[in-house]
User: Which sequence fits this backbone?
């Protein structure tokens, strides 16, 4: 069975720094025998959870937007890496909308996130990385997921497209993180 890891890019820029960083992680996953599956939120509409709790009864999210196909891919994967650009010190709103709805539906149905391997990556011009990582890591932890470490925090510095790839330490850190995700996915 092919083991997949979804790489979710939360940037509205389809070829911005966050996507470029995740593509480097995808290369590592492939090299390590795990199939990467890229999903971009660019051009997609992801509403905030309304806490209607209809997912308890209907076993799916009832909001009508681009969420359901993304959730289906995450359900079938063994891992999830979420990359977000940092806007005003935190993750983009639609990234957190998606994560919160994934968490709510998982908890209300078959706990499909439990035991999956993954974690967050934050990409920013200068600051806000640590708060963004903390914010996103809380989703992984409350969802009973396995979050491997790396040699530093999963943060990369860059503003204009392509600058993040020049952050040598940041890129080494996220590549090592992707390698750890692949190693755990293969062992589970």
Assistant:
């Amino acid at each position: 069975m092919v083991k997949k890891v979804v790489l979710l890019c939360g940037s509205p820029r389809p070829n911005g720094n966050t996507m470029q960083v995740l593509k480097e992680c995808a290369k590592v996953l492939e090299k390590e025998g795990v199939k990467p599956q890229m999903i971009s939120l660019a051009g997609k509409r992801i509403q905030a959870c309304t806490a209607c709790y209809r997912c308890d009864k209907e076993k799916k999210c009832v909001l009508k937007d681009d969420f359901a196909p993304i959730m289906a891919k995450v359900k079938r994967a063994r891992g999830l890496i979420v990359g977000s650009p940092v806007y005003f010190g935190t993750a983009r709103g639609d990234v957190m909308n998606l994560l919160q709805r994934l968490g709510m539906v998982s908890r209300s149905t078959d706990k499909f996130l439990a035991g999956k391997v993954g974690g967050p990556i934050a990409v920013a011009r200068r600051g806000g990385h640590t708060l963004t990582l903390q914010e996103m890591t809380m989703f992984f932890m409350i969802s009973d997921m396995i979050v491997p470490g790396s040699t530093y925090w999963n943060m990369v510095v860059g503003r204009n497209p392509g600058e993040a790839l020049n952050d040598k330490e940041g890129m080494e850190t996220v590549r090592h993180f992707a390698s750890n995700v692949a190693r755990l996915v293969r062992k589970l």
Q: What stands out?
A: Residues 127 and 178 are 23 Å apart (CA to CA). Residues 4-187 form a domain with the Rossmann fold fold (CATH 3.40.50.360). The chain has six helices and six strands.
